[in-house]
Amino acid sequence: MFGVNLSALPPVEVADVAGSIRLHRRELDLVAPVVASHGRHESRRILLVELHTNDHVTGWGECGAPDDAGYTGETADAAAAFLERIVPTALAGRRTLSAGMVRTLIAAADADAPSRHPMAIATLETAVLDAQLRSAGTAFESLFGTPAKRAALAGATLANAPAVEGTDPVEFIVAGALAAVSQGYSRLKLKIGPGLRATDTIRELRAILDSDVILLGDANGSYATDDVAHLASLGELGLDIVEQPFAPHDTAAHQQLVATGSIRVALDEGVRNATDALDALVNHECTDITLKPARFGYLDCVEVLNKVAEHGAGAWIGGMFDTGVARWANIRLASHPAVTLPSDIGASDRYWAHDLTEPVIADAGLVKVPGNRHAGLSGIPVGA
Question: Over 80: is that where the pLDDT of 66 sits?
Answer without folding.
Answer: yes
